[in-house]
Amino acid sequence: MRLLWNTIVDVFLLAATVLFLKDTMTPLKGNANVRRNPRRFYHRTISLDDIKLIKNAMNMTINDVLLGITQAALSSYMNRQYLVSQEQDKNDELEDGSLLTSYLPDGIRFRAGCTVNLRSDIGFKPLAEMMVKDSKCRWGNYFSFLILPLSIGLETDPLVYLEKSKAIMARKKHSYQAALAYFFIKIILKVLGAKAASLAFNQHLKNITTCVSNVMGPMEEISFRGHPIAYISPSSYGHSQASLIHYTSYAGEVTITIGVDPTVIPDPHKICDDMEKSLKTMKAVLWERRLL
Questions:
Q1: What is the pLDDT of residues 65-87, one digit of tens each?
Q2: Phi and psi angles of residue 249, each rounded to the nearest 5 degrees, phi first
Q3: Where in 48-122 does DSSP place strands (E)?
Q4: 3-state class of 106 per DSSP?
Q5: Each residue of 212-226: b (16+ CB within 10 Å) or e?
Q6: pTM for this one?
Q7: Which DSSP helix (H) or strand (E) runs through 258?
Q8: Beta-strand relationship, 210-216 and 111-117
């Protein structure tokens, strides 16, 4: 019953987002012309072992931890932006750049699109196995998307961000919205063509603030024609948000890649700073509470 109810609610919210439901206009929300603007890309590398430590201590998944870090970092970054826009005194700013007082408005609707794998089997499979008919891990694109309502606000306890992210992801796992969205887009593609499917998919993206993804990369270092690869930092161009956040694991590290519209977000490195700082703070709190 819970699964059915969650699916109905999620499909209704998806339809509302396509038609009229928009996120709050914030310092991270792009305008209607954001797709046509140039992009700037920035990356930062953090420790995968630290993320796993937090994952095990909090009994959650790596995706939960990354979403918690994202919520914490975006809350901190936006709070500083609202401080500047309100031209407030910076006397409450700490040495590390964080703030004691929240300048965030109440009731912010801030959502992130998140791609999800629809395959029943996950991980790396031999190519021959993926090419077999009716393979559970078939070759080609087989993914959909979720809309995640992020919690934007300053928390005195950084672990609250992790608890909220875990609750958000647990709620979305008990819904068939991703599978139904894939089914609807596939029908539109077959009946009305690629242009109509693209318009339908892009319509909901215009009304949310950002997109977040996490991709598992090679677990060991690899090389290309004898040249070792230092890091893997994928992103994309032409999307309908002013920011796009990718996490990619590779050889014991996680690379954060942020693609932004510089006319909206001129300092993406500060978001990466906030992400790195949030991870360290969460780990330090767990050490203090002897949970690690």
A1: 999 999 999 999 999 998 877 76
A2: -90, 145
A3: 111-117
A4: coil
A5: bbbeebeeeeeeeee
A6: 0.89
A7: strand 253-260
A8: parallel
Mean pLDDT, residues 210-231: 91
Tokens of 222: 């690899």
- Cα–Cα distance, 27 to 36 (Å, whole number): 18
Distances (CA, A) of 134 to 178, 179, 183, 207: 20, 17, 17, 36
Residue 39: its H or E element: none
Tell me the C-alpha distance between 66 and 166, whole Å.
10
Q: Between 93 and 26, where is the model more confident?
A: 26
**Residues pairing with 213 in the sheet:** 246
From residue 231, alpha-carbon distances to 249, 252, 254 in Å are 9, 11, 9
| Model confidence pLDDT, tens digit, residues 148-200 | 999 999 999 999 999 999 999 999 989 999 989 989 888 998 999 988 888 88
Supply 28's token pair.
């991270």
pLDDT digits (tens, 9 = 90+) for 247-268: 999 999 999 999 999 999 999 9
User: What tokens does 176 get?
Assistant: 């068939």
Torsions phi, psi for 144 (to 5 deg): -135, -160
Q: How far apart are CA 241 and CA 28, in angstroms?
A: 9
